[in-house]
């Protein structure tokens, strides 16, 4: 694939490299950036900040891998305690949070409530991922403001699909 086509295909705003005129075709003069092909400054504005709240370092590391999407989703903080997670909520505008309910200190419920209270114009998508997928906790998580309730033992693999759906929803 020619370099120009590869770059255009990588840009989510370019519909086709053939639609972007080159300087020799009457397009932008040399030295001027063609936004749909080369200008990536818009990506920083559209980058979704993610928060992973999980007290197991191994699981947190795996979640960071699953949630991160280059130029689209960046995990800006991980937290093993409720206090760490609340501090991250205050520090960053969170678009996606993966929250365990039982933490080294506190619970994920306070994190869910804080994210929901700070929602404003762009609410966070809150995914509860827990080993304790009992009906009472599910109800409590949804009442606190969770969007999804997943069981670590059987729903872990659905996280990349959820992230993809969230990104598609944001684009439309």
Q: N-to-C SSE series?
A: HHEHEHEHEHEHH
Q: In the CATH hierarchy, what is the superfamily?
A: Response regulator
* Largest beta sheet: strand ordering: 2-1-3-4-5
User: What is the terminal-to-terminal distance?
Assistant: 28 Å
Please give the oligomerization state of what you see: single chain
Shape: globular
Query: Number of DSSP helices?
Result: 8
Proportion of beta-strand residues: 15-25%
Number of strands: 5
Helix residue percentage: 40-55%
Q: Please state the CA-atom Rg, rounded to the nearest Å.
A: 20 Å
The CATH architecture can be given as 3-Layer(aba) Sandwich
| Count of the separate structural domains | 1
Low-pLDDT segments, ≥5 res = 1-45
Q: Please state the structural category.
A: alpha/beta
What name is given to the CATH topology?
Rossmann fold
In short:
The protein has 172 residues and is α/β, with parallel strands linked by helices. It has eight helices and five strands.
Q: How are the SSEs ordered, and which strands pair?
A:
Blueprint: H1 3-10, H2 41-46, E1 48-53, H3 57-67, E2 73-79, H4 82-91, E3 96-99, H5 108-117, E4 125-130, H6 135-144, E5 148-151, H7 152-155, H8 159-171
Parallel strand pairs: 1-2, 1-3, 3-4, 4-5
């Amino acid at each position: 694939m020619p370099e120009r086509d590869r770059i255009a295909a990588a840009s989510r705003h370019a519909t086709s490299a053939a639609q972007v005129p080159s300087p020799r075709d009457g397009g932008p003069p040399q030295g001027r950036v063609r936004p749909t092909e080369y200008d990536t400054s818009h990506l920083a504005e559209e980058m979704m900040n993610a928060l992973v709240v999980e007290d197991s370092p191994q699981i947190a590391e795996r979640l960071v891998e699953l949630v991160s999407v280059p130029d689209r989703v960046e995990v800006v903080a991980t937290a093993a305690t409720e206090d760490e997670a609340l501090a991250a909520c205050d520090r960053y505008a969170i678009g996606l949070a993966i929250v365990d309910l039982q933490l080294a200190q506190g619970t994920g419920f306070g994190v869910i409530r804080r994210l929901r209270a700070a929602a404003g114009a762009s609410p966070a998508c809150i995914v509860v991922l827990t080993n304790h997928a009992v009906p009472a906790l599910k109800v409590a998580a949804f009442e606190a403001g969770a969007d999804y309730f997943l069981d670590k033992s059987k729903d872990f693999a659905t996280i990349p699909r959820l992230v993809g759906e969230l990104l598609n929803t944001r684009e439309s």
